[in-house]
Amino acid sequence: MTDQIPTNRIFSRRNFLKAAGIAGAAATVGAIGARTTSYAIAGNLDKVKLEWTEVAACHSPIGFGVDRGFYTKHGLDVELFYQGASGQTLIQSLATHKAEAGPGLLYDWLKPIEQGFDVKLFVGSHGGCQRLLVKKDSGIKSLADLKGKTIGTFDVGSPSRVAFSVALAKAGINPEQDVTWKVFPFDLVAEGVERGEADAVAHMDPWAFSYEKKYDLLKIYDTQTGIFEDRVCCVLGVNGEYYNSNKDIIRRVAAANLDIHQYTGEHPDEVAKWYFDNLKPGISVEDLTEVLSGLVYHKHWFGKDLTSEVQIAYENLKLTGVIDPGTDPEEIAHRVTLDIFA
Q1: Beta strands of the chain (E only): which ranges?
Q2: What are phi and psi of 15, to 5 degrees?
Q3: pLDDT of residue 271
Q4: Peptide bond connecting 206 to the previous residue in cis, omega within 30 degrees of 0
Protein backbone atom coordinates (compact mmCIF):
# COMPACT_ATOMS: atom_id res chain seq x y z
CA MET A 1 0.00 0.00 0.00
CA THR A 2 1.52 3.29 -1.05
CA ASP A 3 -0.53 5.73 1.04
CA GLN A 4 1.00 5.10 4.45
CA ILE A 5 -0.09 7.28 7.36
CA PRO A 6 1.33 7.10 10.88
CA THR A 7 -1.20 6.08 13.50
CA ASN A 8 -0.65 9.28 15.47
CA ARG A 9 -1.75 11.52 12.62
CA ILE A 10 -5.19 13.02 13.19
CA PHE A 11 -7.47 13.69 10.22
CA SER A 12 -9.93 16.52 10.66
CA ARG A 13 -12.69 17.13 8.11
CA ARG A 14 -11.02 20.40 7.13
CA ASN A 15 -7.71 18.69 6.45
CA PHE A 16 -9.51 15.92 4.58
CA LEU A 17 -11.27 18.33 2.23
CA LYS A 18 -8.15 20.42 1.74
CA ALA A 19 -6.15 17.34 0.84
CA ALA A 20 -8.92 16.09 -1.42
CA GLY A 21 -8.82 19.31 -3.37
CA ILE A 22 -5.10 18.91 -3.97
CA ALA A 23 -4.59 15.21 -4.47
CA GLY A 24 -8.06 13.99 -5.45
CA ALA A 25 -10.78 12.78 -3.12
CA ALA A 26 -10.43 9.11 -3.96
CA ALA A 27 -6.73 9.00 -3.17
CA THR A 28 -7.25 10.91 0.07
CA VAL A 29 -10.12 8.74 1.24
CA GLY A 30 -7.99 5.73 0.46
CA ALA A 31 -5.39 7.03 2.86
CA ILE A 32 -7.66 7.74 5.81
CA GLY A 33 -7.29 5.20 8.54
CA ALA A 34 -4.29 3.52 6.97
CA ARG A 35 -1.62 2.10 9.26
CA THR A 36 2.09 1.78 8.75
CA THR A 37 1.82 -1.99 8.38
CA SER A 38 1.76 -3.30 4.83
CA TYR A 39 -1.55 -5.03 4.17
CA ALA A 40 -0.30 -6.77 1.06
CA ILE A 41 1.18 -9.54 3.23
CA ALA A 42 -1.00 -12.63 3.13
CA GLY A 43 -2.81 -13.35 6.38
CA ASN A 44 -2.29 -9.82 7.68
CA LEU A 45 -5.87 -8.67 7.13
CA ASP A 46 -8.43 -7.93 9.83
CA LYS A 47 -11.65 -9.88 9.36
CA VAL A 48 -14.99 -8.10 9.52
CA LYS A 49 -18.46 -9.19 8.46
CA LEU A 50 -20.68 -6.60 6.76
CA GLU A 51 -24.38 -7.04 6.16
CA TRP A 52 -25.87 -5.89 2.86
CA THR A 53 -28.95 -6.18 0.67
CA GLU A 54 -27.50 -7.65 -2.48
CA VAL A 55 -30.62 -7.08 -4.58
CA ALA A 56 -30.56 -3.32 -3.94
CA ALA A 57 -28.74 -1.35 -6.64
CA CYS A 58 -27.47 1.17 -4.09
CA HIS A 59 -25.72 -1.64 -2.17
CA SER A 60 -23.88 -2.92 -5.23
CA PRO A 61 -20.80 -0.73 -4.56
CA ILE A 62 -20.26 -2.75 -1.37
CA GLY A 63 -20.06 -6.06 -3.24
CA PHE A 64 -18.02 -4.43 -5.99
CA GLY A 65 -15.63 -3.07 -3.38
CA VAL A 66 -15.08 -6.52 -1.89
CA ASP A 67 -14.54 -8.11 -5.29
CA ARG A 68 -12.15 -5.42 -6.54
CA GLY A 69 -9.95 -5.16 -3.47
CA PHE A 70 -11.02 -1.80 -2.06
CA TYR A 71 -11.35 -3.23 1.44
CA THR A 72 -8.13 -5.19 1.12
CA LYS A 73 -6.35 -1.93 0.42
CA HIS A 74 -7.49 -0.82 3.86
CA GLY A 75 -6.28 -3.99 5.52
CA LEU A 76 -9.67 -5.68 5.72
CA ASP A 77 -10.87 -9.18 4.91
CA VAL A 78 -14.60 -8.57 4.40
CA GLU A 79 -17.28 -11.24 4.43
CA LEU A 80 -20.73 -10.19 3.25
CA PHE A 81 -23.88 -11.34 5.01
CA TYR A 82 -27.15 -11.03 3.08
CA GLN A 83 -29.61 -9.65 5.60
CA GLY A 84 -32.66 -9.48 3.33
CA ALA A 85 -34.62 -6.47 2.14
CA SER A 86 -36.20 -5.45 5.45
CA GLY A 87 -34.95 -2.84 7.87
CA GLN A 88 -35.90 -5.16 10.71
CA THR A 89 -33.64 -7.94 9.48
CA LEU A 90 -30.90 -5.34 9.19
CA ILE A 91 -31.25 -4.61 12.89
CA GLN A 92 -31.45 -8.30 13.76
CA SER A 93 -28.28 -9.16 11.86
CA LEU A 94 -26.26 -6.76 14.01
CA ALA A 95 -28.06 -7.53 17.25
CA THR A 96 -27.40 -11.26 16.84
CA HIS A 97 -23.80 -10.73 15.65
CA LYS A 98 -24.45 -12.28 12.25
CA ALA A 99 -22.66 -9.16 11.02
CA GLU A 100 -20.67 -6.43 12.73
CA ALA A 101 -21.57 -3.47 10.55
CA GLY A 102 -23.17 -2.49 7.28
CA PRO A 103 -25.36 -0.07 5.32
CA GLY A 104 -29.04 0.62 5.77
CA LEU A 105 -31.57 3.33 5.06
CA LEU A 106 -31.15 6.06 7.64
CA TYR A 107 -34.83 6.00 8.65
CA ASP A 108 -34.62 2.23 9.25
CA TRP A 109 -32.02 2.77 11.97
CA LEU A 110 -33.67 5.53 13.97
CA LYS A 111 -36.61 3.94 15.82
CA PRO A 112 -34.61 0.89 16.98
CA ILE A 113 -31.87 3.22 18.17
CA GLU A 114 -34.42 5.30 20.06
CA GLN A 115 -35.68 2.09 21.69
CA GLY A 116 -32.21 1.26 22.95
CA PHE A 117 -30.62 -0.83 20.22
CA ASP A 118 -26.85 -0.54 20.69
CA VAL A 119 -25.68 0.72 17.30
CA LYS A 120 -23.52 3.63 16.27
CA LEU A 121 -23.87 5.38 12.91
CA PHE A 122 -20.53 6.31 11.43
CA VAL A 123 -20.58 7.20 7.72
CA GLY A 124 -23.05 7.85 4.91
CA SER A 125 -22.78 6.25 1.50
CA HIS A 126 -25.16 8.04 -0.89
CA GLY A 127 -28.29 10.07 -1.31
CA GLY A 128 -31.50 9.12 -3.08
CA CYS A 129 -32.83 5.67 -4.02
CA GLN A 130 -36.64 5.84 -3.71
CA ARG A 131 -39.37 7.17 -6.01
CA LEU A 132 -43.03 8.16 -5.84
CA LEU A 133 -44.73 7.43 -9.17
CA VAL A 134 -48.17 7.99 -10.72
CA LYS A 135 -49.82 7.41 -14.08
CA LYS A 136 -49.31 10.34 -16.43
CA ASP A 137 -53.05 10.72 -17.03
CA SER A 138 -53.94 10.59 -13.33
CA GLY A 139 -54.03 14.35 -12.87
CA ILE A 140 -51.64 13.98 -9.93
CA LYS A 141 -48.72 16.36 -10.33
CA SER A 142 -47.53 16.97 -6.77
CA LEU A 143 -47.74 15.74 -3.20
CA ALA A 144 -50.72 18.02 -2.59
CA ASP A 145 -52.68 16.13 -5.25
CA LEU A 146 -52.33 12.89 -3.27
CA LYS A 147 -54.79 13.99 -0.60
CA GLY A 148 -57.60 11.44 -0.52
CA LYS A 149 -55.66 9.04 -2.76
CA THR A 150 -54.30 5.51 -2.29
CA ILE A 151 -50.56 4.87 -2.35
CA GLY A 152 -49.27 1.40 -3.07
CA THR A 153 -46.18 0.05 -1.34
CA PHE A 154 -44.67 -3.35 -0.53
CA ASP A 155 -44.92 -3.46 3.27
CA VAL A 156 -46.97 -1.76 5.95
CA GLY A 157 -43.73 -0.28 7.33
CA SER A 158 -41.73 -0.07 4.12
CA PRO A 159 -38.87 2.44 3.94
CA SER A 160 -40.68 4.12 1.06
CA ARG A 161 -43.81 4.60 3.15
CA VAL A 162 -41.74 6.07 5.97
CA ALA A 163 -39.79 8.43 3.72
CA PHE A 164 -42.75 9.70 1.72
CA SER A 165 -44.87 10.02 4.86
CA VAL A 166 -42.34 12.59 5.98
CA ALA A 167 -42.61 14.39 2.64
CA LEU A 168 -46.41 14.39 2.87
CA ALA A 169 -46.35 15.70 6.45
CA LYS A 170 -44.00 18.50 5.41
CA ALA A 171 -46.46 19.35 2.63
CA GLY A 172 -49.30 19.68 5.14
CA ILE A 173 -50.89 16.28 4.43
CA ASN A 174 -51.47 13.89 7.30
CA PRO A 175 -49.86 10.66 6.06
CA GLU A 176 -52.13 8.48 8.21
CA GLN A 177 -55.46 10.25 7.74
CA ASP A 178 -55.34 12.09 4.43
CA VAL A 179 -54.05 9.19 2.29
CA THR A 180 -54.61 5.43 2.25
CA TRP A 181 -51.63 3.05 2.13
CA LYS A 182 -52.20 -0.29 0.41
CA VAL A 183 -49.75 -3.19 0.49
CA PHE A 184 -48.96 -5.24 -2.63
CA PRO A 185 -46.41 -8.01 -3.24
CA PHE A 186 -42.92 -6.57 -3.54
CA ASP A 187 -42.64 -6.89 -7.31
CA LEU A 188 -46.28 -6.19 -8.13
CA VAL A 189 -46.81 -2.71 -6.68
CA ALA A 190 -46.89 -1.01 -10.08
CA GLU A 191 -49.44 -3.53 -11.35
CA GLY A 192 -51.71 -2.31 -8.56
CA VAL A 193 -51.64 1.15 -10.08
CA GLU A 194 -52.15 -0.22 -13.58
CA ARG A 195 -55.27 -2.09 -12.37
CA GLY A 196 -56.62 1.03 -10.67
CA GLU A 197 -56.25 -0.38 -7.16
CA ALA A 198 -53.88 2.44 -6.16
CA ASP A 199 -53.15 5.93 -7.41
CA ALA A 200 -49.40 6.01 -6.75
CA VAL A 201 -46.39 3.74 -6.29
CA ALA A 202 -43.88 4.25 -3.46
CA HIS A 203 -40.89 1.99 -4.02
CA MET A 204 -37.10 1.67 -4.02
CA ASP A 205 -34.63 1.49 -6.90
CA PRO A 206 -33.91 -0.34 -9.09
CA TRP A 207 -37.51 -1.57 -9.02
CA ALA A 208 -39.05 1.91 -8.94
CA PHE A 209 -36.83 2.96 -11.82
CA SER A 210 -37.87 -0.09 -13.86
CA TYR A 211 -41.56 0.62 -13.13
CA GLU A 212 -41.15 4.21 -14.26
CA LYS A 213 -39.80 3.05 -17.62
CA LYS A 214 -41.94 -0.08 -18.13
CA TYR A 215 -45.28 1.58 -17.40
CA ASP A 216 -44.32 5.10 -18.53
CA LEU A 217 -45.09 6.52 -15.10
CA LEU A 218 -44.56 10.07 -13.89
CA LYS A 219 -42.16 10.66 -11.00
CA ILE A 220 -43.64 13.33 -8.75
CA TYR A 221 -41.12 12.99 -5.91
CA ASP A 222 -38.01 11.08 -4.90
CA THR A 223 -35.50 11.03 -2.08
CA GLN A 224 -33.23 13.49 -3.86
CA THR A 225 -35.67 16.37 -4.31
CA GLY A 226 -37.64 18.70 -2.09
CA ILE A 227 -37.00 18.03 1.59
CA PHE A 228 -34.52 15.27 0.69
CA GLU A 229 -32.27 17.40 -1.49
CA ASP A 230 -28.64 16.99 -0.35
CA ARG A 231 -29.77 14.64 2.43
CA VAL A 232 -28.08 11.29 3.02
CA CYS A 233 -30.17 8.22 2.21
CA CYS A 234 -28.14 5.22 3.39
CA VAL A 235 -25.81 5.15 6.39
CA LEU A 236 -23.46 2.53 7.81
CA GLY A 237 -24.04 1.41 11.36
CA VAL A 238 -21.95 -0.78 13.65
CA ASN A 239 -22.81 -2.92 16.65
CA GLY A 240 -21.81 -0.75 19.62
CA GLU A 241 -20.10 -3.55 21.53
CA TYR A 242 -18.07 -4.52 18.46
CA TYR A 243 -17.05 -0.91 17.82
CA ASN A 244 -15.75 -0.44 21.36
CA SER A 245 -13.28 -3.29 20.80
CA ASN A 246 -12.49 -2.67 17.12
CA LYS A 247 -12.42 1.09 16.55
CA ASP A 248 -9.56 1.00 14.09
CA ILE A 249 -11.26 -1.65 11.95
CA ILE A 250 -14.46 0.38 11.69
CA ARG A 251 -12.46 3.52 10.90
CA ARG A 252 -10.97 1.64 7.97
CA VAL A 253 -14.40 0.34 6.94
CA ALA A 254 -15.54 3.97 6.80
CA ALA A 255 -12.53 5.00 4.74
CA ALA A 256 -13.04 2.12 2.32
CA ASN A 257 -16.74 3.00 2.04
CA LEU A 258 -15.93 6.57 1.03
CA ASP A 259 -13.31 5.31 -1.38
CA ILE A 260 -15.73 2.87 -3.01
CA HIS A 261 -18.55 5.36 -3.43
CA GLN A 262 -16.22 8.01 -4.79
CA TYR A 263 -15.18 5.46 -7.40
CA THR A 264 -18.79 4.51 -8.13
CA GLY A 265 -19.68 8.13 -8.75
CA GLU A 266 -16.89 8.32 -11.32
CA HIS A 267 -17.41 4.85 -12.85
CA PRO A 268 -21.11 3.90 -12.49
CA ASP A 269 -20.96 1.85 -15.68
CA GLU A 270 -18.24 -0.38 -14.26
CA VAL A 271 -20.11 -1.01 -11.01
CA ALA A 272 -23.35 -1.60 -12.95
CA LYS A 273 -21.64 -4.18 -15.16
CA TRP A 274 -20.33 -5.98 -12.05
CA TYR A 275 -23.83 -5.89 -10.53
CA PHE A 276 -25.39 -7.25 -13.72
CA ASP A 277 -22.85 -10.04 -14.18
CA ASN A 278 -22.77 -11.20 -10.57
CA LEU A 279 -26.24 -10.60 -9.15
CA LYS A 280 -28.48 -11.10 -12.22
CA PRO A 281 -31.00 -8.44 -11.13
CA GLY A 282 -33.34 -8.78 -14.11
CA ILE A 283 -32.67 -5.23 -15.27
CA SER A 284 -30.36 -4.19 -18.09
CA VAL A 285 -26.82 -2.90 -17.64
CA GLU A 286 -27.88 0.38 -19.22
CA ASP A 287 -30.71 0.83 -16.72
CA LEU A 288 -28.48 -0.12 -13.80
CA THR A 289 -25.91 2.41 -14.97
CA GLU A 290 -28.59 5.09 -15.10
CA VAL A 291 -29.78 4.20 -11.59
CA LEU A 292 -26.27 4.30 -10.12
CA SER A 293 -25.41 7.48 -12.05
CA GLY A 294 -28.43 9.20 -10.52
CA LEU A 295 -27.42 8.65 -6.89
CA VAL A 296 -25.67 11.39 -4.96
CA TYR A 297 -22.05 10.55 -4.14
CA HIS A 298 -20.42 13.97 -4.19
CA LYS A 299 -21.01 14.62 -0.49
CA HIS A 300 -19.04 12.86 2.24
CA TRP A 301 -21.31 12.35 5.23
CA PHE A 302 -19.27 11.80 8.36
CA GLY A 303 -18.45 13.65 11.57
CA LYS A 304 -20.54 16.76 12.17
CA ASP A 305 -22.24 16.48 8.79
CA LEU A 306 -23.53 13.01 9.62
CA THR A 307 -24.68 14.12 13.08
CA SER A 308 -26.63 16.92 11.44
CA GLU A 309 -28.25 14.47 9.02
CA VAL A 310 -29.29 12.17 11.86
CA GLN A 311 -30.74 15.07 13.83
CA ILE A 312 -32.77 16.27 10.84
CA ALA A 313 -34.04 12.74 10.25
CA TYR A 314 -35.20 12.42 13.87
CA GLU A 315 -36.97 15.77 13.58
CA ASN A 316 -38.67 14.58 10.40
CA LEU A 317 -39.85 11.30 11.91
CA LYS A 318 -41.31 13.11 14.91
CA LEU A 319 -43.70 14.80 12.46
CA THR A 320 -45.14 11.41 11.50
CA GLY A 321 -45.38 10.06 15.04
CA VAL A 322 -42.75 7.37 14.49
CA ILE A 323 -40.45 8.96 17.07
CA ASP A 324 -41.71 9.65 20.60
CA PRO A 325 -42.64 13.29 21.32
CA GLY A 326 -40.22 13.40 24.26
CA THR A 327 -37.16 12.35 22.25
CA ASP A 328 -34.62 15.14 21.77
CA PRO A 329 -33.31 14.89 18.16
CA GLU A 330 -30.17 16.89 18.89
CA GLU A 331 -29.25 14.88 21.99
CA ILE A 332 -29.82 11.47 20.45
CA ALA A 333 -28.06 12.41 17.19
CA HIS A 334 -24.92 13.42 19.07
CA ARG A 335 -25.12 10.30 21.22
CA VAL A 336 -25.41 7.73 18.43
CA THR A 337 -23.16 9.12 15.70
CA LEU A 338 -19.40 8.68 15.68
CA ASP A 339 -16.88 11.27 14.57
CA ILE A 340 -15.10 8.41 12.90
CA PHE A 341 -12.02 10.26 11.62
CA ALA A 342 -11.48 12.50 14.65
Answers
A1: 46-52, 76-82, 101-105, 119-126, 130-135, 150-153, 180-183, 200-204, 217-222, 234-239
A2: -65, -35
A3: 96
A4: yes
Instruction: Identify the CA nearest to 32 among candidates 55, 56, 7, 51.
Output: 7
Specify whether domain 13-127+231-336 bears CATH 1.10.3720.10: no
Domain boundaries, given as residue ranges, for the chain: 13-127+231-336, 130-222
Check whether domain 130-222 has CATH 3.40.190.10, yes or no:
yes
Listed in sequence order, the residues at least 6 apart from 16 whose beta carbon sits closer than 8 Å to its beta carbon are 28, 29, 32, 300, 341
212 Cβ contact partners less than 8 Å away, ≥ 6 residues apart: 131, 133, 219
Q: Are strands 180-183 and 150-153 parallel, antiparallel or unpaired?
A: parallel
Write out residues in the chain with pLDDT < 50, as ranges: 1-42
- β strands within 160-253, DSSP E: 180-183, 200-204, 217-222, 234-239
In the prediction, which pLDDT does 87 show? 62
CA distance 219 to 130: 10
For 312-322, letters b (16+ CB in 10 Å) and e give: bbbebbbebeb
Q: Residue 216, by phi and psi: left (phi above 0), alpha (psi -120 to 50) or beta?
A: left
